[in-house]
Amino acid sequence: MQRVRHRLAMLKGRSLKPHTFGLPVKLEIGKTLDLALKRRPDTRRIVVVAGDDEACCTRVALAREALGRYAGELDVQYPVGLTLADRG
After folding, report:
1. Structural domain count, the chain
2. 45 occurs within a structural domain
3. Dist CA 3 CA 1 (whole Å)
4. What residues make up the domain containing 44?
């Protein structure tokens, strides 16, 4: 969450070129999974699939932080850097 706060702080006071706009996005990974588990309480495995670019690595780090509280309760897997062919 520290990275998200840092990035949002960087946006404050910045002006954008005419005819453009910005919309900061806050990922609520933990809350999303909580909702999913309420709808699918028999879930035993979560798979976070991501590329290996900087944006994906940042999101995977956020996912690891948010999903860490499920350790021992769910099997959480992070296949990162797979090509589309690898994902089959």
Report:
1. 1
2. yes
3. 5
4. 2-14+25-87
Give domain status of residue 20, yes or no.
Answer: no
**Position 82 in a domain:** yes
Q: Is the pTM of this model over 0.85?
A: no
pLDDT in tens, the chain (88 residues): 455 555 666 667 777 778 877 777 778 999 999 999 999 999 999 999 888 888 888 889 999 999 999 989 999 999 988 777 776 6
Task: Return the bridge partners of 84, or none.
Answer: none
H helices of the chain, in order, are 2-11, 29-39, 54-67, 84-87
Domain assignment present for residue 64? The answer is yes
What is the length of the chain?
A: 88
CA-CA distance, 79 to 52, in Å (whole number)? 10
